[in-house]
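Structure tokens please, single chain.
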Amino acid sequence: YAMLLSLIFLIVLVAAVVGFVFRHEIKSNFESNLNLALEDYNVTADRHSEAVDTIQRTLHCCGVQNYSDWERTEYFSQKGIPRSCCKSQNDCLEKDLKDPNKAKLKVFVDGCFSLVTSTMESKMSIVAGISFGIACFQLIGIILACCLSRYITNNQYEMV
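Here you go.
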């Protein structure tokens, strides 16, 4: 049992170190995937388009760096900026969303990449605290399992 807990502890420790060391690569990978999701965005309900819409609605953002990122997509030439970028769903007309100057007044102008990364970084202390607490419980479990194993081993020699 102690060996199993030690193995799990080491796996979690290695995952945390790898995540910390490669955090910049994770950010750049996320940014490139978000750009790809914008390029492939369409009105059919695929997972990537739904994810982009959810991020934009939830964080009140639009595009990767800002709302003008949508101008480089195929979707913009057909329908303009997506409705998930609108500040008010009642005030967003398709003709306004096709005109970047009018759309600037009706959509969120901040990009999603900076908001997602800042949200993740702000929650990192909570994640680190919970992880530290779990690691402490695992270490206590390892120590107690070793003590129990030693106690059982010592009692067997006394009985013989």
